[in-house]
């Protein structure tokens, strides 16, 4: 505890006008109701290879006065931005990355970002932009001559940004309006923003910080549009920090959240940059002024150029999990402490004992474990895929990885929006106070649905991938994608799937549950094929037919595919715990059962049409509710195993010590002008006197 | 347009660094695709009796410089609070209410609040607290001697608050800890907050404004707890505005939203108030110190004492509709203007033409019409119920009204949370900018789920009411509650319900659709009865059995009951339009079809178990998607009929003129420090120099 903070606490204790608080033992009592679990095992499996770094950086943040959410809550834009830069500098200086480190282990960037994000995802977002979006673009698309830019970025000499999105174009990257026209006389590019909608928009770090950017612009050579290409260009003078001549830039102003990140706009006005600014690994302009590219197909080329987004999307998956974990930490502890109603004048009951509250929170805990297991999986797979991609940018492994990541980016952020909103509502008025910090997690989950590829657009990528595989399969080419090994092309076989269970106990069977998840994908695949065949003749072309087979079909197919992967990864995770500790594993395994059964219940229509009967769906519902009840009592132990320390969590109502009531009183009494009369008392009196009392 | 605002616009135009914008005709083009509808008819039916006042107050607000969202967006707490009080004073002075007006027409308060809330629900919330929660409590529970307090409140001489919720108790009002101990010697009450958790918490207007409060406290007479009673008491000195001796009060500080409302806390320390502060219509203490009450049952008495919440809950229903309407206005216009992707190098396509975007938005439009129709219904019914309640506080009509209102408060706020979140996501990055104002509507919907009775607790009230009626019916007493006239006690009859349709067209049948909604209630009722019978012997007592039959059963039953009422009221509303204009009515009627079909689709498991087969559910899905497509093209006309004027909407991306891009640029360029270098440039340079470049 910093001296300053200790003084503040002491002071608040001395000046508090509230009655003296007794120690609140509610949380401890709730915890004592069930057996402890092996917390270290849970944490080690849950965090995987990131675990040692998490412990290290948690300690570092906890012992630095730079990290203090109670101070952040009232900070306005500019002081907040300053603080975030300081935090970043402080942590990065002792955890510096280099090109060589990244080449050796691509998990290192994500690991550092994950640790930053545990404290605050404004801080990690700031760095995602620089260390992955900006830098990965140069690493992926640049050549030896760009090595200096790479090294400068790793040393924070340059601060980078990622200028892709424009005011008029986001998802449709091919439609970007910014042009980079090659001038062979000077061997320069002339960059222009022809219209207001061409302005690069909401670009992280452009508002105030970045001196460099990875620019995406249409390359024009000899008057011919060669498609969108990436450039690395300076935007601010290194010494004066003023925009360079030909560059207009500014701050995009107030946002729903994330004001600590200086999203800005960027306009170019005949801005000339030398040839070497082109990231020319895939496309070059020869010294005699001819364009050439190793990837002929424009669309494919663009896809590869967006490779810099991969680690950004992984950051979304990881960030969604952090939002869920923090929110559930707060809401579960709240629910164990908060008591309401009693029977026959007995003691009041912790609200977590109510079925409704259990059902509101516990399924999200299962989903959170699912998302985390996929975060680990995505990181591991990235290691394989990246090395393959350097050699062959068009490899199948990348296509599959891209489809999985697209689905996962959608699902994780959607799950997080639902979970954080539920936690907000489940904590009532206290959760609506800023000191709960639930708002940060909800808003952060919200923006995760939008950036790094809009969710609705992305999930189509998964559907597209599945259909491409199926088309090949119909041609007799075996499906080799491991994530689709279970696809069944024979509709009769899918229809013949009947589930054989007549008791709740029979449902706790991992083979059966995985089959249920796979069945859903197969069912939706065949439904989608049929719908697409029906729509084909109805519409002008495949573009329209495809777009009109999204709702209830292809969108659901993409999601079911992603959720099936989650179920499998989650099973791997819980079995990992089981291997190390039987008793703890048995508790954690219930999260897997619950994850699948909740998905089945929420899609009961699909299962009832063919696979289930009504009694079976009622058994699923019973099992779901029972699992929620059983897990509720263990959930506080599970949370204690993986929760961030109180200082990092920074929630007045979510502390591990259970002193929720006295903590929120402290937070409120420490806030600005708490006991002051209104600054606008004269106005109040004026209103009072405006109407005469008859 | 105020002079100041005009100057700002002019200035921004002169100093803009952006390329010059062409006029954007996208929205006009979208509108021109379909026939105009009769907007006046739609508005008149939609707003019902409130319509003239809405037009009047919209004009008043539009012509006053006090109402300007572009200024509000950067205001900090205290200036915002000042502005809200000014706005309130300005509008109320020319729309003053009195006790007599309210007695004659109980819609007048809600009408004024609705109009205020169109501009900003911080402003209306401020006034809900005073004019309904505070004042209705006195009107309902006070006697002739309290008339002066009533008149003072209507003249804003007093500003009131509603001190019910405590830090430790919200939903369980019977568990409140604040005590009012009767002292017969002085015929006073001594008010105390024994523990920190007894502090009145998050009480609107207590932080800075209120000099009075309606206090809910346990009445202690002769050492005996007589249950929670209501008092009207002063809390601040009228002249100095300082807390009165024995009262401690302060501001609850920063919230997720609503910082313009000064929610505060209130602690009492042997605070003595005279006997007449007791609102003594139902309970009195005789001059010889004996407690008596006309309602013997404590629980019933408390229920009646909470009558002051009724108009607060109506305000939630109305407020939810406003949140949905503003958000959909913004998101639909955005979707007509924003273009993305094209086929074969054709022109880019407005995103509202995509099935996915239609399905994201249009069902919420149908739900919004449903909520509005129920707002009208609740207002009309309140007129009847209130007069009956004055004579007989225990009348059946009140019990039914309470159950409908409880369900509606839950459903409207849940619908609004979902709709506003979807609109936020559906507007991408621009929707994440504060200038979209989508955040206000989302946050406002969010708090609507919590206050005026937590949603999860409230929906149980509806289930309880239904079960009470059923219990009576099993005893042979006819169900007289109009909202339950269709209940079928015979399970076989429910099970025999089969739906006869085999084409999409057959689904557009209002009788069939209403039957589907009723069937769902009956089905869930019988499922709940069976589950309760199963749970009875499993649990210790009915308290536990009831609480463990909530998820999938009683909670769903309550919601299905509420949604069935919505469907019926919506049908009445759309038929009201049809009567006045066939062509327009035919368009609006699709909203009714969509409302029901979407509900059926989302509960497909329920229908598939007994009523439907798989082909039928696919027809429902087809119809749903087709209705979304057809309505999408008319949706902009519908929105134009009911949308608030641009100045009241205050969204840079939702203006009726369709100039979304130039408006957001204007908003950004007008924001603070847009073109300034960071105030923290030295820190940035320090971070740059922390690591050496090798």
Mind explaining what this structure looks like?
Two copies of one chain form a homodimer. The first copy, chain A, is globular, with a radius of gyration of 27 Å. In chain A, β2 (179-183) and β3 (188-192) form a beta hairpin. With 694 residues, chain A is α+β, with helices and mostly antiparallel strands. In chain A, the strands form three sheets. In chain A, strands 1, 2, 3, 5, 6 and 9 form a six-stranded mixed beta sheet that branches. The first copy, chain A, has a three-stranded antiparallel beta sheet with strand order 4-8-7, with no helix packed on it. Chain A has a two-stranded antiparallel sheet with strand order 10-11. Chain A has helices spanning 3-15, 26-32, 39-47, 51-62, 69-72, 77-93, 99-104, 107-119, 121-141, 147-154, 298-305, 310-337, 355-391, 396-426, 428-432, 438-450, 455-474, 491-495, 510-538, 542-547, 550-580, 582-602, 604-610, 614-642, 646-649, 660-669, 681-688, and strands at 162-163, 179-183, 188-192, 200-203, 212-221, 224-234, 247-251, 264-268, 271-274, 283-285, 291-293. The longest helix of chain A has 37 residues, at 355-391. The first copy, chain A, has 27 helices and eleven strands. The interface between A and B is large, with 142 and 142 residues.
